[in-house]
Amino acid sequence: MNNKGMFKHRDINTFLVNHPHVEKQKKKPFEYLNLSYSKQFDYSPKQPYSTKANEIQYKSQQEPSFLRQNTLPNYEPTKCSSLKNGIIKAYAANTNQGLVREYNEDRVSIILNIIKPQSRENEPWPKCSYFGVYDGHGGSACADFLRDNLHQFVVKEPEFPWNPINAITKGFEAAEKCFLQIAQDSFNKGIPERSGSCAIVVLIIGDNCYVANVGDSRAILSSENGKKVIDLSKDHKPELEKERIIKGGGQVYQTHGVNGEGQPILGPIRVNPGRLSVSRTFGDIEAKLEKFGGNPKIVIAEPEIKQFKIINEHDFIVLGSDGIFDTMSSKDVINGIWRDVQYNQNSNDLHNMMSNAVESVIKESLLRKTTDNVTLLIIAFSITPLREQEVRVKTMSYIDKIVNFPLSSNTSNLRTRKYNDENNPFFMNAQKLKQKSKLMQINLEDNLHYRLIG
């Protein structure tokens, strides 16, 4: 495909007509809005829009005809920041059930400021921000649980924030145990709870960034105005962790089938027990507990963590569910964002630029006929032509002594198309910020106070 025309001259109308939808989901991704956060978030695009399913008018400066004419089920405008927050200059996020699925099990969590607990009021406390994308499957319960609780398990660790890697590792382990117990209790009451979820998390402490991954969602770093594309996570696929799976007593296999024309087709590579096409998840009780035929050594919730210091050359981080990367490579996504930024650079509004870029990437993944839910979140630090010359926020010296995890410099290839049954609405959490002085002291009562969008 010619990258130059990736976002132009595509006839999605025909594609949408050929994929009719049955509207079963009553709750919209952004149905509920806490208006007290109106200053923290802006609607984007900034124009009136209808909330009636399949009658939404889209906005795009790239393909206005496409967005004026086509519709998506349960579409809601992208949410973006309105103010910068320390090292984070802007962010934007959106999710959609896509063209094939009749439900959305992706979730998003954004917490701009993790406030110091009262019990630690005598300690110094750096600026901390948390972003998470959770790709659920088999139901939304596990993704809902992670959205609402995973960050709390991390923050409650005594080693947070001065040893973030240990805090993340132990917090993820505690969250996994808690949800498995919840699922088991549900089974004991006669209510099967089989859901699971992937998680890709970015924790920013001062100017140090920590990326934790469980599953096949992905984090990517754009650097030097998009000249460098760096994968910050490794997809946890059965074929890539085959040695560990077999050593633990599991199996890796590939499904087969026949299409409507009688031709044989290959399905995704899966792991057994669990029959999942991903090798690390939260939840999935039937894959992990022996009483259900599972094996705790096979599908695990142990995160892989990478750490780096944010510098002036770093543009932005992208978090996306696998529905994006099933049809687009990491480089495709970054290049698409930069094309959108350059097209809209005269707007001189980084927040709207990021919002438009999110919608462009989601649109392109749908044009390429992804079959999954799609979610994308961009965290922008400094982007030319709006790059700011500034002194980066410095962290306490002892944070810098933490062992660095090497960055992966490779750019992943396109994924194999999935035809599985994995993978409602989208919740975004945001910390309400109150500025009282140059030190930006924050009331304790606002600690972990979230904005509900879905």
UniProtKB/TrEMBL annotation:
Presence of the UniProt keyword ATP-binding in the record: no
Catalytic activity of the protein: O-phospho-L-threonyl-[protein] + H2O = L-threonyl-[protein] + phosphate; O-phospho-L-seryl-[protein] + H2O = L-seryl-[protein] + phosphate
Domain (PPM-type phosphatase): residue spans on this chain: 90-381
Alphabetical UniProt keywords: Hydrolase, Metal-binding, Protein phosphatase
Topology term for the membrane: Peripheral membrane protein
Localization: Membrane
Principal location listed in the UniProt entry: membrane
Family: Belongs to the PP2C family.
Identification of the protein by name: protein-serine/threonine phosphatase
Organism: Paramecium pentaurelia
